[in-house]
Design goal:
single chain, 345 residues, alpha/beta, TIM Barrel, 2 domains, two-stranded parallel sheet
Length: 345
């Protein structure tokens, strides 16, 4: 007998096929979408479903729920959760409230294989990909607690290393009959996996794209981001341009983590202007969140503003993004690391 698959990992087309396999009307796929994803219900609570369908689902599918190992609340309202998957592997998800909206940062892998030198998650390496149901379960977990407006795939993992699950996740959360997130409110962040970007274009993935750039020369970017050895700046920038020319995508978000004395000098600002001059984008400047054992330091607030001013003077729309949750170790993956350290003592 084949293993039962999690129900919340099925998109609309799969739910229609499920209904046909169960020999019930297709309309019940809409009831499943509304119950599971819009109202955040468990199967037994969806009253529109016939008993025949519920029995068939119970035989062929499971209801995946995640547990919460640890929760931390920051003074600024940021809330971090360490979630336990059915196999006891753990990932983190972060709730970031701001004026008028709430954003959830979602993980796509247990660990990460990208190896970026400024990222704590990378120090643990990759354990495994998350299934589409495990990614969806993070959003369902949070929606039991508070309404969420924006989703950012910027938690643990490189989303484009887990393309199939991430693509299915985006289809599920943007389905107007289900969770109904606007594609404009869903953002996928990548270290620069160029083949994945072209797959997004080909598949017309309904979300925003953010690219973690972080350097203005191939030499430095290859040093701090190994992916650059495979996909250097010229190749990555061309993919970004092609993305903005395709379909609904008008702009790309560029993430630039500022490392003191490494990539925050005046010459970096000048080169950044040249690199991005033909790329329709919004540039987000992110002061580095230092962690124990890190090779880098955060620049001063004065230097961050000076770097931004250099870019603005050259016509680059640059925004300094506030670091949230510093008092609860907000660097990506840090909550899991801290939990491991506590467990080992």
């Amino acid at each position: 007998m084949e293993p039962r698959t999690p129900l919340i990992g099925l998109d609309r087309a799969s739910l229609v096929q499920l209904c046909r396999d169960a020999e019930v009307k297709d309309v019940h796929a809409k009831h499943l979408l509304a119950g599971l994803f819009r109202r955040n219900q468990n199967l037994d609570d969806i009253i529109e479903l016939p008993k025949k369908l519920k029995a068939w689902i119970a035989q062929h599918h499971t209801e995946l729920e995640v547990g919460c190992s640890t929760a931390q609340l920051s003074d600024d309202g940021t809330h971090k959760f360490l979630l336990k998957m059915p196999d006891c592997k753990e990932v983190e998800t972060v709730l970031i409230p701001t004026k008028g909206r709430v954003t959830q940062c979602v993980s796509t892998q247990v660990g990460c294989a990208a190896g970026c030198q400024f990222c704590l998650t990378a120090t643990a390496g990759l354990t495994r990909n998350l299934s589409v149901a495990e990614i969806v379960a993070q959003v369902r977990f949070m929606r039991h607690r508070t309404p969420v407006r924006n989703l950012v795939l910027m938690g643990m993992g490189e989303p484009l290393h887990n393309y199939e699950s991430v693509h299915s996740f985006v289809r599920i959360v943007t389905d107007p009959l289900g969770m109904a997130f606007s594609p404009r409110h869903v953002t996928l962040s990548t270290v620069g996996m160029v083949p994945g970007i072209y797959r997004m274009i080909e598949d017309e993935m309904a979300c925003n794209l953010a690219v973690s750039l972080n350097a203005t020369t191939d030499e430095l970017r290859s040093e701090i981001m190994p992916v650059n050895k495979a996909y250097p700046l010229a190749v990555l920038l061309q993919a970004m341009k092609d993305y903005t020319k395709s379909g609904r995508h008008k702009r790309v978000f560029v993430e630039y983590v500022l490392l003191a004395g490494v990539n925050d000098r005046d010459e970096d600002a000048l080169r950044l202007k040249q690199l991005l001059k033909d790329v329709p984008c919004t540039l987000n400047l992110l002061p580095f969140n230092a962690f124990s054992g890190s090779l880098y330091q955060a620049p001063s607030a004065q230097q961050v503003l000076h770097f931004q001013d250099q870019l603005l003077a050259q016509g680059i729309f640059a925004i300094v993004r506030e670091s949230r949750g510093r008092d609860i170790s907000a660097a990506c993956g840090q909550l899991k690391t801290e939990q491991r350290q506590r467990a080992s003592r």
